[in-house]
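Q: Joint fold for the lines below.
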Amino acid sequence: MSQLVAMLKPDFLLHHALYGSVAMGFVCPLVGVYFLLRRLVFWGVALPQVSAAGIACAFMLQGLGLNILAGPESQEKHLAIIGSLVFTGLSILFLAVLERRGKGVSEGRIGSLYALAWAASILFVAWNAAGETEMLGLLKGEIVAISESDFHAMLNVFGLIAVTMFLFQREFLLVSYDRDMAVTLGRSVLVWDVLLYLVVGLTVSLGVMTVGPLVIFGFLVVPPMAALPWARGMTSFSVLASLCGGASALAGFYISYTCDLPLGPVVVCVACAFLILSWLAQAALGLRGRSAWAGYSGA
Amino acid sequence: MTEPLIRFKHASLGYGRTPVLAGVDLEIPAQAFVGILGHNGSGKTTMLKTILGLIPCLKGQFVSRGQAAPRFGYVPQKERLDPIYPLSAYDVAALGAYRRLELFAKLRGRDNRPLIQRCLADCGAAGLAGKAYSDLSGGQKQRVLIARALATEPEILALDEPLAGIDITTQKALLKLLKEIKEQRRLTILMVSHRIQAERGLFTHIIWCDEGHALMGQTEEMLAHGKLGEIFRTEL
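A: Joint structure:
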């Protein structure tokens, strides 16, 4: 316990990594709830991998002598962010356009994109042997080595994402739940969809850069799944998912630090433990689905 | 004679470039209770979606009275709403009041709760407010969706097959509710249905969709002497 208290102090050696992980744990599920509600969970698998392919591509181009950003070593991260954002943004645009058309098999498209992203990541690394080490570090997530300036930039972006998700919750809910109703109320479904997808793209790109594709997928999907059976409306759903994500990150960091285990997999395992606890609690209380509403008054 | 609320002139309605209904000429008067009838795939929902502005009119003219489009209260088919959303009946009804709640309105002290509670009460759904919407029965869901539509303070209430999959007793109760709402609020009601049994006494007008055409008239006129069957070779 005393070690946990010591970890939370600002003079803890890895306090940037701890605070960054927890911030990401709080914020990613706020976006992830819409993956779950819109039944786009597989986007959560494919997009982080696409983002990783973008990072690999950016490093490959640099390895081939196409220096997009000339400058000190820290510019490498900016290069990676650009690659990640471009790939993720284009993929979201591609998937969103096809979703709106409503033709074809959605899961098939996402599965194909995932396979392509994996293959492309490997090929980009193969074509850029010199940058392999840095790139693998970035793909695994380099939160432990995050600099002061990057840490503050990351907190600002995550703060902006959290504010956006709460400020426009009603709009995102309306266009996700009943698009026709949104149109009859004079709302632009396209505008709100684009804003939501921009936030998704930013979260995934920054998340993959910071903690890697595995953890970001875990944060996007697992905490919302654990929270859904206990949610009493969108606000409580978002808050519960966010708390679950934050708690998973904190507990995961503690276990990782004290047991000298890799951070990412531990955090995902802790989040999954919360999910299993949620299921067990439902079973123990004899609850089915979301019938735990007795006594709740939305009014 | 009062100006019609909605008017189609030589209109073609459909999706993409494919018309489902062609040569549509009809006028919907204010405060009418219009049944949009026809068999499955005849274009009933296409007509409703065009009126609601969800799909564009392919050809011809579709105009609504005045400069601004009328305010619609839309009641979709209840199966269209995904039960995975953790929303209470109150939350669902509150979505209807969204138009009235501008950004930061709450900070300025505006509150839509009395409106939403009144709409739920008017639909006999006040006691359902705290329950999970996905746990409600078909009839209860329809009441909540009608309350949501009323929360938009509409001029036109548009319902898409509200009686589908609901037992006879509940159907009668819902029709009684619609009749009361129309009388109290002096609304125009458009209701898509593929049958005309219990509803027959409510409709002031019928739009009959069949074989790519739509015909409108007053209910008694349309039903008299098997006229629909004569025109469209279809038995009601």
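Q: Anything notable?
A: Residues 168-185 of chain B form the longest helix (18 residues). Residues 18 and 161 of chain B are 23 Å apart (CA to CA).
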